[in-house]
Specification:
The chain folds into three domains: 154 residues, Beta Polymerase, domain 2 (2-Layer Sandwich), CATH 3.30.460.30; 142 residues, Rossmann fold; 84 residues. The chain contains 17 helices and ten strands. The radius of gyration is 29 Å and the shape is elongated. The chain is α/β, with parallel strands linked by helices and 427 residues long. Strand 5, helix 8 and strand 6 form a beta-alpha-beta unit.
Length: 427
C-alpha cells in the first residue's frame, strides 16, 4: 500500500548555513524531480525549496527505502556527503505528512505565521512537479486540498491580518538600530517580491532616498519608478555603499554579491558612519565576514526571528482556529485515502457491467437490425441505466465500509459474487 512521506528541514531545525547548501543551485528542484522520477521505489514526488525550508514530498510503498533515496539525493544536491545534515531533517508519514503539508500551506509552520508567500511557493513547486510528470493521483489531490485549506484559513481566521512579512521584520530591525529611519538612505539589492515589500515599508517609515540594484536594469527601473527611487546596476554597488545607511539584499544569486573587501574599501570615506546590512537571501548575498568590520552591522534571515514577537499573541489565538480547520481537512483527506482501496473493485464492477451490455447487444444485433438508429440508441441507454442501478448499491455499500477494518472481507466477497477475477482464476 502506498504511503505519503515528507522529508525536509526548515528554519526551526536547520541553520541558514545548511539550508543554503540546497538553495544555491536554481536547478535544484528540477534535478531532484528528475532523480525521483527515475527511481522505481518512488511512485509520486514533489520538491519544495525556499529560503526557509527544503522538503521532498513522496508517495512510496517502502518508507525506509524512500527515506534513503531522498536523503542521498539531498546529500548529493547540497554536496553534503558526510550525512551529518540528517540530524536536522524531520520525517512525517501518512496523515502526519498530510497534516504537515496543510500547516505549511496555511503558513502555520512559517517563520512569520500567516505570511502569504509560502502558498505561492508551494503552487510553483506543484506546477513544476506536474510539468516533470512526477505528481500523480495522491499528490494531485493532496495539493488541491492544501490550497483549499489555505483559503479556508485565510478567510475564516484573522491570521493573515495579524501577520508580518520577513521584509516588515527587516525594516523593524533597521528601526531598532537607528531608532528612526527619517532622513536615512537605503539600497535594495534585488527586485523581487520581498524587495518590493521592503521598499513599501521603508517609504512608510520615512526613508529619504532609495536606490534599487538588480541583475537586469530593466527590472530595477520598473521597481524604482513605482517608489520614486533610483535604479542602479550591480556594478554600481561599491559606489552606493559610500553614501547609504541601510542595505537590504534579497537576490537569487548563487554567489556572494557584496564581499568583505568591497565593504572595507568604502569605510574610510564614510568617516565612521554606521552601515547596516540586512541579508534575507538564501544562499546569502553578503559575505558574513563583513560583520567583523568596525561600524558595520550584518543581520541575516535567521536574525529576524525575534522581531515579530509583538504580534505573536494575536497570531496564536488565530492559529488555534486555523489548527482546527487543518484537523477537519486531515480527517476528510483520510476518508478519501481509504476509498482508494475500493476503487479497483468499483472499476472492475463497471467494466464487467459494460462488457455484459456490449455482449448482449451484439448477440441481439439480428433482432435490433430492424430498429432505427434512434431506437437502437434508446435500447443502449436503457441497458446501461438498468446495469448502473444494479451495481449502484454494491458500490455505495463498499464506499461506506472504506474506513472499516472489515473492508478486505467485503471486497473479497464482492469480487467472488460478481466473479470479477474470472480471468485470473482461469490462468
Amino acid at each position: 500500500m502506498s504511503i505519503i512521506l515528507n522529508i525536509g528541514m526548515n528554519h526551526q531545525t536547520a541553520p541558514i548555513e545548511l539550508r543554503e547548501c540546497l538553495a544555491s543551485d536554481p536547478m535544484t528542484t528540477k534535478k531532484a524531480l528528475a532523480t525521483m522520477r527515475d527511481t522505481e521505489e518512488i511512485k509520486e514526488a514533489m520538491f519544495l525549496s525556499t529560503c526557509n525550508r527544503v522538503e521532498a514530498l513522496v508517495v512510496a510503498e517502502h518508507m525506509d527505502r524512500a527515506w534513503e533515496i531522498v536523503v542521498n539525493l539531498m546529500g548529493n544536491l547540497g554536496n553534503m556527503g558526510d550525512r551529518s545534515f540528517t540530524d536536522h531533517l524531520y520525517r512525517h508519514e501518512g496523515l502526519q505528512a498530510v497534516r504537515h503539508v496543510f500547516r505549511v500551506a496555511s503558513s502555520l509552520d512559517s517563520m512569520v505565521v500567516g505570511e502569504p508567500q509560502i502558498l505561492g511557493q508551494i503552487k510553483a513547486a506543484y506546477l513544476e512537479a506536474t510539468k516533470e510528470k512526477t505528481s500523480g493521483v495522491i499528490i494531485n489531490r493532496l495539493m488541491h486540498r492544501a490550497f483549499h485549506v489555505a483559503k479556508r484559513v485565510r478567510t475564516e481566521t484573522g491570521i493573515s491580518e495579524a501577520a508580518v512579512s520577513i521584509s516588515y521584520a527587516a525594516v523593524e530591525l533597521a528601526k531598532k538600530i537607528f531608532h528612526e529611519l527619517e532622513g536615512k538612505k537605503a539600497l535594495l539589492i534585488g527586485a523581487g517580491e520581498m524587495a518590493e515589500l521592503a521598499a513599501r515599508h521603508f517609504m512608510a517609515n520615512g526613508i529619504r532616498s532609495m536606490a534599487v540594484a538588480n541583475r537586469t536594469l530593466e527590472r530595477a527601473v520598473e521597481v524604482a519608478q513605482e517608489f520614486g527611487a533610483t535604479a542602479v546596476s550591480l556594478q554600481e554597488i561599491p559606489y552606493q555603499l559610500l553614501d547609504v545607511d541601510i542595505v537590504l539584499s534579497s537576490t537569487a544569486s548563487s554567489e556572494v554579491v557584496i564581499t568583505r573587501d568591497m565593504v572595507k574599501a568604502c569605510l574610510r570615506k564614510r568617516r565612521n558612519r554606521p552601515l547596516f546590512f540586512i541579508d534575507i537571501a538564501v544562499p546569502r548575498d553578503i559575505d558574513p565576514r563583513v560583520n567583523e568590520l568596525n561600524n558595520v552591522f550584518l543581520f541575516d534571515i535567521d536574525d529576524l526571528k525575534g522581531i515579530t514577537e509583538s504580534n505573536l499573541e494575536q497570531r496564536r489565538k488565530e492559529a488555534g482556529k486555523a489548527e482546527r480547520i487543518v484537523e477537519e481537512e486531515v480527517i476528510k483527506f483520510d476518508r478519501w485515502l481509504k476509498t482508494l482501496a475500493v476503487v479497483p473493485t468499483i472499476v472492475s464492477l463497471r467494466e464487467k457491467a459494460e462488457a455484459i451490455i456490449r455482449g448482449e447487444l451484439e448477440r441481439s444485433s439480428g433482432v435490433l437490425a430492424s430498429l432505427s438508429p434512434r431506437q437502437k440508441e434508446a435500447v443502449e441507454i436503457l441497458s446501461r441505466s438498468i446495469a448502473e442501478k444494479i451495481i449502484n448499491d454494491p458500490i455505495l455499500f463498499l464506499k461506506g465500509k472504506a474506513d472499516r477494518p472489515t473492508l478486505p472481507t467485503y471486497l473479497d466477497i464482492t469480487r467472488k459474487l460478481f466473479n470479477l477475477d474470472e480471468n485470473v482464476e482461469k490462468e
